[in-house]
Amino acid sequence: MNYTIEKFNLGKYKFDFAQWSHPLCTPKTFTLEQTDTQTKYLSKGDIVIDIGAFTGDTPILYANAVGKEGKVLSFEANRSCL
Can you tell me whether residue 63 is helix, strand or coil? Predict the structure, then answer.
């Protein structure tokens, strides 16, 4: 698998994300607004299960919202997305 690691610094949220080199994947970008939106629905310490995570762009938003106290479990069952 080919990928590059991209660093994101959104002020209070800092994380690395693997940008996959796959014909069906477009480069992902993240904004502070996207991450802050998740805090309307999630709190520190929550547990999230994401079924159909594709490249993991949404789970990274969840992870920032639930913090180190929380857990995010995600998987992609569609083999064509791997």
Answer: helix
**What residue spans define the domains of the chain?**
30-82
For a pLDDT cut of 70, what percent of the chain falls above it? Answer: 95
- pTM for the full predicted model: 0.84
Calculate the CA dihedral of residues 80, 49, 67, 65 and round it to 10 degrees: 80
- Spatial separation of the C-alpha atoms in residues 77 and 72, rounded to whole Å: 16
What's the CA gap between 3 and 38, in Å, rounded?
Answer: 26
pLDDT at 53: 87
User: Exposed (0-12), middle (13-18) or buried (19+): which is 64, by Cβ within 10 Å?
Assistant: buried
Element (H, E) at 59: helix 57-66
- What is the phi-psi region of residue 54: left when phi exceeds 0, alpha when psi lies from -120 to 50, beta otherwise? left
